[in-house]
Specification:
- With about 25 residues, the protein is mostly helical.
- The chain contains 1 helix and no strands.
- The model has no long low-confidence stretch (mean pLDDT about 75).
């Protein structure tokens, strides 16, 4: 489930968080 964010900073934060979760 992907969420579209208008703020690129938030989008980057979400991408980083997802990467950490997948990295586990």
């Amino acid at each position: 489930s992907f969420i579209i964010v208008s703020d690129p900073a938030i989008a980057k934060h979400i991408l980083r968080d997802n990467a950490k979760a997948y990295s586990k």
